[in-house]
Amino acid sequence: MSAGNLARALGAASLALRSYQYGNAAPDLAASIADAADHTLTAAGYGDIHALVERGDLAAPRQHGLSVEIEDGRIVIAIGIDALMTAIDGGPHAPEDLDYRILTRDGFAADIVQALEAEDDEGTTLVHVMFDSATERALDEGSLSVEFDEPERDAD
């Protein structure tokens, strides 16, 4: 991999990103630049760049998409703040006409965490409700990791 090839790929990517910065939408340009970048990275020995991204090896923590995993005996739910704000602003479940504007992403994320941890009169949080719903869904979908008690029958 020559330095010239690397410089050309990075230069093309930079120009494409600058184009988007100024409001130009060019899916064909994006595809061709992404293909060239993939080729350059593969030639440089990085292999399948998309597999690295899917594993989270290349995603910056703030852009990391939602993940729910079991790690060291814990259920770990994580999402990058920028990914969450993108979902709030324009995700498929976002309202079409937002009647608010997020001023600081980190501040709003802190507010969301506070809302998730807030307890009602019985000490229940939104996270508890989420786990209760997930438990119910897993049972309804026939989890093979539980055994259901047989209903008692009348001795008539």
Secondary structure tally: strands = 2
Order of helices and strands: HHHEEHHH
- Beta fraction of the residues? 5-15%
What value does the average pLDDT take? 81
The first-to-last residue Cα distance is 83 Å
Portion of residues within helices? 40-55%
* Gross geometry: extended
Q: How many separate structural domains?
A: 2
Task: Determine the number of helices (DSSP H or I, runs of at least 4 residues).
Answer: 6
Class computed from helices, strands and strand pairing:
mainly alpha
Spatial order of strands in the largest sheet: 1-2
- Gyration radius, rounded: 23 Å
Low-confidence stretches: none
Largest sheet: 2 strands, antiparallel
Protein model, in words:
The structure is a single chain. The chain contains 6 helices and 2 strands, in the order H-H-H-E-E-H-H-H. It folds into 2 domains: 3-55, no CATH class; 61-140, no CATH class. Helix 1 runs antiparallel to helix 2. It has a two-stranded antiparallel sheet. The protein has helices at residues 3-21, 27-43, 49-55, 81-90, 105-117, 126-140; strands spanning 67-71, 74-78. It has 156 residues and is mainly alpha-helical. The model has no long low-confidence stretch (mean pLDDT 81).
Describe the structure concisely for a colleague.
This protein has 6 helices and 2 strands, in the order αααββααα. It is mainly alpha-helical.
